[in-house]
Amino acid sequence: MTGISELPPAKLAAHEAAVARLRDAYAAVPPGVPVRLAKPTSNLFRFRDSARPAARAARYLDVSAFGHVIHVDRAAKTAVVGGMTTYEDLCDATLPHSLMPLVVPQLKTITLGGAVTGLGIESTSLRNGLPHESVTELEILTGDGRVVTATKDNEHSDLFFGFPNSYGTLGYALALTIELEPVKPYVHLRHFAFNDPKSCMAAIAEIAETGGYQGHRADFLDGTAFSTKELYLTVGAYSDKAPWLSDYTGQQVYYQSLRRSREDFLTIRDYIWRWDTDWFWCSRPFGVQNMAIRRLWPRRYRRSDVYRKLVAIDQKYGLTSAYYEGRKRPQREMVIQDVEIPARRGDQFLQFFAGNVAMSPVWLCPLRLRGDRAWPLYPLEPGEVYVNFGFWGTVELPPGEHDGYYNKMVEDEVSALGGHKSLYSTAFYSVDDFRSRYNGAAYDKLKAEYDGGGRLLSLYDKCVRRR
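The structure assignment produced for this chain is given below.
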């Protein structure tokens, strides 16, 4: 089984009925009325003002029928998956077959469609690239109301290659056929320490070249920088056996273990979700890393989506801002970004970040495109090794400065170093700068072909203007 049309008859009939209902619901939305997806969770950090007229008038489409795994073909190592399916549900469906997606983004409620249209990354990305590179077929409800199937070599190949980084402005992924890879029951981790960014980047280059480090196979690779003098690369290898197992879903916190241990073992499922329990380290402001509070905080609520909802409430009501204002303390800017920098310049970025933003820790995730071609709307160079730097938190604003000070500074440095910035959070690019960085000419062509009436927001309006 290689595609949607080859699904077992009952599954195909149910899927086609759901597609027809959604297409009719979309067609019933009056022209000019904003369209949104009714999703229970979000991993975006572009908070809209819900009081805006456009937000109040938006029509929300029920896409719940596309939130499950439709079929797993163990023999072919493929799966057909609804576009709104979370990676948590996707892995729960594939792991019993000893299979997993080639790249599983680090948070449970990221959806497959979201990772493809908005990009995703994780510790297999040096081997396997980005999530969209293991997609073989996309079924999309386009902005002009059609339902089309796009592959790399059919009449909609332009949409297939242009869909990544379009953020739902060309259409919505209803179903995707993806490749899967075999897994073993455990992951054997080794944490390697470095005392300067240059040696850490050199180790990444070595791993990219050889596929391992100091005799340890690199099936997985990511890193954590606590400072420019304390960095760790975590190299993971599939394993059939584990002499012991750690558990970071309870009282222990994963990122803190990097400083204590040089070796670890996790089940494959616990490895996949090692960052989710504490949202990397971002559970700290909620007190969840205080052991007294942690013991009282129910395990089922130690999840990234719970923390994200708390942040959304804070943003909606301005609670933190009012707290600082009431106590006449400096306001803090939310600096939540993921940026890709060529690994050969990664040390420069870390030195800049430490000297100007001084937030820690910082996540390091090496990546390289899996194939030999670029993807138009996020033009990484084939063959180039990049490092994704992820940093998420708040920084006190200097006197006289306003919100955006740090984020704009980071944007400028990323550009100067020949990097790119993911668009899930705040962005400040001018129209011309944005078009030059994200291939505005290619996007315009796709927009005209698949949403000629402008039914959906443009990429710039959605990702920079936050409409």
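Interim note for the steering committee: The chain has three domains: 4-183+448-463, 186-274, 318-428. The chain has a mean pLDDT of 93.
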